[in-house]
TrEMBL record:
<dbReference type="Pfam" id="PF03600">
    <property type="entry name" value="CitMHS"/>
</dbReference>
<feature type="transmembrane region" description="Helical">
    <location>
        <begin position="197"/>
        <end position="213"/>
    </location>
</feature>
<feature type="transmembrane region" description="Helical">
    <location>
        <begin position="31"/>
        <end position="53"/>
    </location>
</feature>
<protein>
    <submittedName>
        <fullName>Arsenic transporter</fullName>
    </submittedName>
</protein>
<dbReference type="GO" id="GO:0015105">
    <property type="term" value="F:arsenite transmembrane transporter activity"/>
</dbReference>
<dbReference type="InterPro" id="IPR000802">
    <property type="entry name" value="Arsenical_pump_ArsB"/>
</dbReference>
<feature type="domain" description="Citrate transporter-like">
    <location>
        <begin position="9"/>
        <end position="313"/>
    </location>
</feature>
<comment type="similarity">
    <text>Belongs to the CitM (TC 2.A.11) transporter family.</text>
</comment>
<keyword id="KW-1003">Cell membrane</keyword>
<feature type="transmembrane region" description="Helical">
    <location>
        <begin position="322"/>
        <end position="345"/>
    </location>
</feature>
<feature type="transmembrane region" description="Helical">
    <location>
        <begin position="288"/>
        <end position="310"/>
    </location>
</feature>
<comment type="similarity">
    <text>Belongs to the ArsB family.</text>
</comment>
<keyword id="KW-0813">Transport</keyword>
<dbReference type="GO" id="GO:0046685">
    <property type="term" value="P:response to arsenic-containing substance"/>
</dbReference>
<keyword id="KW-0059">Arsenical resistance</keyword>
<feature type="transmembrane region" description="Helical">
    <location>
        <begin position="154"/>
        <end position="176"/>
    </location>
</feature>
<feature type="transmembrane region" description="Helical">
    <location>
        <begin position="357"/>
        <end position="381"/>
    </location>
</feature>
Length: 383
């Protein structure tokens, strides 16, 4: 509810800017044309992920992975790492943070191994693993739209930094948690889905959706189609699941307010100082400067407003990806650096798993600079 309140206040700020002529009707029309399809995708893919989770898809996959691990925590963790990466890349960081976290934490608890490495894996990979595709993160969608890049063109530029960010994140988790990850556990028998038909429909829908998200079709179209398929399936089999809370309305209000407010700041040139800080150029140091400013800004105010404020100063694909490295992969120090982190912590609290914010921030201070440097240097080497 807090982010909805913040978003409502920002919408009022944007409305005032329009009323006093800071934003013209043409400015508003252009902004709406840019962001409405993106918000439509966010709503649709959230509904898809929520209903797939209700069908037991994530739980069943995680339990099958536990069976494949054959009692070895390190194998289970590597499989969860792969699942979290795939979930983040194709279904967005929020899906991994919100829907996968309670599943893998419960899995670790049932196996009687520490849930902490698994919890850190989901939240860190949700952020650091969200570089590869436009659909992985709302900031990526904005960047791809601004640069008019096909998803595969986007992935060609982001592949090396995305791989570097994931590998460094995984290495830090293993190095800091070796005893917990080298433990053994007694595997349990995987339970079948409660409704096999809903499970099958959800699985097939996601399998069909994933390639469509990189096909070049506007992503809100296949995501909306997938949402409609699952809504119809649940309306027939489990109508009680269909409730308004499936729609991420708070995020929509928050994002809409940010778009308007930051657009107004750009109109009065209040963000020009960020251009000086972000610098220019494409040398490794120049790209590290952009990424560093992005990471600092994201950890101060949140990654979405940080991206929106700095976007005009990353005016080509390489500098834009450097900015995304900062605001996506670098936003893991403060709790508010990304909305996914706050949602992840709420899920941990509901699962009775305790990671204090001071401890989280200290760990973030360790991993964020390593990921930032590795990913940015990988970008510079391949650009």
């Amino acid at each position: 509810m807090r982010i909805a309140i913040v978003g409502g206040v920002l919408l009022l700020v944007g409305a005032a800017a329009a009323l006093f002529g800071v934003l013209t009707p043409d400015d508003l029309a252009e902004l709406a044309g840019r962001v409405l399809p993106i918000l439509a995708f966010v709503v649709a893919v959230t509904v898809v992920a929520e209903l797939a989770a209700e069908a037991g898809l994530f739980r069943v996959i995680a339990e099958r992975l536990a069976a494949l691990a054959r009692g070895r925590a390190i194998v289970l963790w590597l499989l969860v790492l792969a699942l979290a990466t795939a979930s983040t890349i194709f279904l967005s960081l929020d899906t991994t943070a919100v829907l996968l976290t309670p599943v893998v934490v419960a899995l670790a608890a049932h196996a009687r191994i520490s849930p902490i490495p698994f919890a850190l894996t989901t939240v860190w990979i949700a952020n650091t693993g969200s570089l590869l595709l436009p659909v992985s993160n709302l900031t990526n969608l904005l960047a791809a739209e601004r640069l008019d890049l096909h998803p595969l063109q986007f992935a060609a530029i982001t592949a090396a930094p995305a791989a570097a960010a994931i590998v460094v994140t995984a290495a830090v988790i293993f190095v800091t948690r070796p005893r917990q990850l080298l433990a053994r556990f007694e595997p349990e028998t995987a339970s079948p889905p409660e409704d096999r038909l809903l499970f099958a429909v959800s699985a097939v829908t996601l399998v069909v959706l994933m390639p469509l998200l990189v096909s070049g079709v506007e992503v809100w179209i296949p995501a909306t189609g997938a949402a409609i398929v699952l809504v119809i399936a649940f309306a027939v089999r489990r109508p009680a699941v269909l409730r308004f809370e499936l729609v991420p309305w708070q995020l929509v209000v928050f994002a809409s307010g940010l778009f308007l407010a930051v657009e107004a700041l750009h109109a009065v040139r209040a963000t020009d100082v960020l251009g000086v800080l972000a610098g220019t150029g494409h040398s490794p140091l120049d790209l590290l400067q952009v990424a560093g400013v992005g990471a600092f800004s994201a950890n101060v105010v949140n990654n979405l407003p940080a991206y929106l404020a700095l976007e005009p100063f990353a005016d080509d694909p390489v500098r834009m990806v450097a900015l995304l490295i900062g605001v996506n992969a670098g936003a893991i120090i403060t709790p508010w650096g990304s909305l996914a982190t706050l949602l992840w912590h709420a899920r941990l609290v509901s699962a009775d798993v305790e990671i204090s914010w001071p401890r989280f921030m200290l760990l973030g201070l360790l991993v964020a600079p390593l990921v930032l440097v590795a990913a940015t240097l990988a970008l510079a080497a391949t650009a």
